[in-house]
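Review the following:
>
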Amino acid sequence: MSVRPRKFAARLQYLLVLYVIGQVIAGSFVDLPYPYWVGWLPIVAVMVIALARSRSRSREMAADRPSPVEIAPPVTGRWSAVNSPADKVPSHGTHGLGQTYAIDIVAEPTDKSRPAFARLWPIALGNHAFPAFGAPLLAVADATVVHAEDSQRDHLSRNSLAGYVYLMLIEAIGRTLGGARRVVGNHIVLDLGEGTYAVYAHVQRGSLAVRAGDKVAAGQELARCGNSGNSTEPHVHFQLMDGPDLNSARGVPFSWRGVGVPRNGEQFTVPVASELA
């Protein structure tokens, strides 16, 4: 499936979801001018389109899986991997939004522990309780900034049972309807050249150090880690894609220089430049 049909399928799926929601709302006030079973057809269509897009992406990947692009890590310090493509592809359970080879990482400094998942209490925590919040995000290569935004708020954590249920059943649906930028939150897209683009998601509000059009050097600070968008806690979501548009781009595998691709739960340390000198 080429870029244009992928865009059409994504937009059609989005419009059908909006139609279903509108139908439910309208049906609460008036009788709809068609039989009850007809109202289920758009839902079936959404499921069929989603399945077709997933199978198309899988076929394309199997036929022409690109080689990993070697780049520098986007952070320094001690971190661990979550939702890694080293364990499963697609790593986040979907090829959508170019996430096929995306990875989440959380900070694990020796001087501060990361709050554990809470079954009952506390329901939510402030972002400063997490060591990843405010960590510098670095350019993984010499690049050009294609997109940069940081106006969305950093919400409280969703690392409790009640918070996670709220995220999956209520918040995630609303963000999906709001489009890609509401899912990834504040984010940066870099053009690395040769048809490869890097995405940093869930960026901290008001932390941008660059703007669209800027030229950046490898290791340069771009922004800071936050908790905006569809996120359970402050963490770095990083991915490579074959285009700048999240709605139509395909994921590209990566390998961090000196680190590789850490597996789920694997801890790794990236020294700062001064420590290498």
Remarks:
- The radius of gyration is 20 Å.
- The first helix runs from residue 3 to 27.
